[in-house]
């Protein structure tokens, strides 16, 4: 027993540090930093948690995890998972990110050699995608876009908003608090389930600067409900000279037949919205960004506000957004629109490789988009303990736990990723078998 006890075979620190597989990490992170991790990993061997021959790989893994986010395969069936970073970027957007890592012409015209409109390719692409918008602006996220627009239009004055649209966007952040923190006073009108045009009209005073319509994107009120349409509010805005701001949230630029309840930017502007705001990393399928669209002079006013400088998007975002808008499709679009039959084929393929059964599985758009919309799909079923093991693998696989089972929903796992998923599950299976074997012995 003594000679085979792995605890007695802990590789020496010097020997581990001399391994060529750790050379690059020592030159980039420093020898001390790597040595600290080697000692921790050696402790795992002493405790019997790790085989001695796996030390080098474990050190590499550990160091990589400390400086990089861990790549995750999304097997949740939720397309825009906020905790997983929302939209997965299109290949062209990924290339654009890498290509923009150094110096770029983000704000320079290389022909004339003078300063140019920052991020003009993304702005031009937005203009092409939303013909009703004469101007566009890109900031850090949807919350920044909305704050900046309302600050510009209504600081120190009132904005009318329906009581049914006072939403919390997640992690305890509420739009009303965000808006009021910018020095804009919210005047709530109507009730939670019904707000009519007359409620807005009756609340207009000389203090009112704008009307705000927010798409309550992460919940749905059902039953006895009504709301004023953008077109109705646009009429009131024309009659009273107030601006009409529409926060559509999800970033659909044009209507999508599969998502009939999701508002889109082009339709809102055609219906008379002064400015539309939305996110870049929801249904638009791009990087985290906030987008402002509207008539050129209205957008320019927002762009000139001093706070814009605090919210402006960086070169990577602008490059990825331009590339996303230039792509024929995005992983987000594909995952939402993939036919159920194709998902079944994909799940059966994965199920065969894993010798595991498949079941129907309901997916979601997520990320606070299209609430209540079921996306029928398929999943492979594994025993519950797999969920944790898969999360700890590399790449990590985040599955859904439901009814005491682990479900691998294949909606966001394109066919070309199935090899990786298979390898991850087989590694988890080995690990669970080892753990089961030793505890049973
Ligand atoms: C998601 C959302 C926001 C916040 O956008 P972020 O990009 O997450 O900052 C604001 N309003 C609505 C309606 C949303 O759906």
Automatic annotation (TrEMBL):
Keywords from the named record: Cytoplasm, Protein biosynthesis, Pyridoxal phosphate, Selenium, Transferase
Pathway(s) this gene product operates in, as recorded in its UniProt entry: Aminoacyl-tRNA biosynthesis; selenocysteinyl-tRNA(Sec) biosynthesis; selenocysteinyl-tRNA(Sec) from L-seryl-tRNA(Sec) (bacterial route): step 1/1
Subcellular location: Cytoplasm
Cofactors demanded by this protein: pyridoxal 5'-phosphate
Catalysis: reaction(s): L-seryl-tRNA(Sec) + selenophosphate + H(+) = L-selenocysteinyl-tRNA(Sec) + phosphate
Main location: cytoplasm
HAMAP family in alphabetical order: SelA (MF_00423)
Family that this chain belongs to: Belongs to the SelA family.
Task performed by this protein: Converts seryl-tRNA(Sec) to selenocysteinyl-tRNA(Sec) required for selenoprotein biosynthesis.
PANTHER family, per database record: L-SERYL-TRNA(SEC) SELENIUM TRANSFERASE
Protein name listed in UniProt: L-seryl-tRNA(Sec) selenium transferase
Species assigned in the record: Arsenicicoccus cauae
Gene name of the encoded protein: selA
């Amino acid at each position: 027993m003594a000679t085979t006890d792995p605890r007695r075979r802990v590789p020496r620190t010097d020997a581990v540090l001399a391994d060529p597989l750790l050379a690059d990490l020592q030159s980039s992170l420093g020898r001390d930093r790597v040595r600290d991790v080697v000692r921790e990993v050696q402790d795992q061997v002493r405790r019997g948690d790790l085989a001695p021959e796996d030390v080098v790989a474990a050190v590499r893994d550990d160091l990589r995890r400390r400086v990089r986010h861990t790549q995750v395969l999304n097997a949740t069936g939720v397309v825009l998972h906020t905790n997983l970073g929302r939209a997965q970027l299109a290949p062209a957007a990924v290339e654009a990110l890498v290509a923009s890592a150094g110096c770029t012409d983000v704000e320079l015209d290389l022909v004339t050699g003078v300063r140019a409109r920052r991020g003009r390719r993304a702005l031009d692409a937005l203009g092409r995608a939303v013909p009703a918008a004469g101007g566009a602006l890109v900031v850090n996220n949807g919350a920044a876009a909305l704050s900046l627009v309302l600050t510009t239009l209504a600081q120190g004055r009132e904005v009318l908003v329906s009581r049914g649209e006072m939403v919390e966007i997640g992690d305890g952040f509420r739009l009303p608090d965000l808006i009021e923190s910018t020095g804009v006073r919210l005047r709530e009108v109507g009730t939670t389930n019904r707000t009519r045009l007359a409620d807005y009209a009756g609340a207009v005073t000389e203090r009112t600067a704008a009307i705000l319509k927010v798409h309550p994107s992460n919940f749905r009120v059902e039953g006895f409900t009504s709301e004023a349409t953008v077109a109705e509010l646009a009429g009131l805005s024309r009659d009273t000279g107030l601006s009409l701001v529409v926060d559509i949230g999800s970033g659909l630029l044009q209507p999508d037949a599969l998502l009939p309840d999701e508002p889109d930017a082009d339709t809102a502007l055609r219906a008379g919205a002064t400015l539309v705001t939305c996110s870049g990393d929801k249904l638009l399928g791009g990087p985290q960004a906030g987008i402002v669209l509207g008539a050129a002079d209205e957008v320019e006013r927002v762009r000139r506000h001093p706070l814009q400088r605090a919210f402006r998007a960086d070169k990577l975002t602008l490059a990825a957004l331009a590339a996303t808008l230039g792509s024929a499709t995005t992983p987000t679009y594909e995952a939402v629109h993939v036919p159920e039959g194709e998902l079944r084929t994909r799940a059966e393929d994965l199920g065969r490789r894993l010798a595991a059964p498949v079941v129907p599985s309901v997916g979601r758009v997520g990320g606070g988009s299209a609430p209540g919309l079921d996306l029928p799909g398929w999943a492979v079923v594994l025993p519950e303990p797999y969920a944790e093991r898969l999360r700890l693998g590399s790449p990590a696989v985040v599955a859904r736990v439901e009814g005491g089972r682990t479900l691998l929903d294949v909606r966001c796992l394109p066919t070309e990723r199935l090899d990786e998923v298979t390898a991850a599950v087989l590694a988890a299976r080995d690990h669970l078998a080892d753990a089961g074997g030793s505890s049973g012995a």
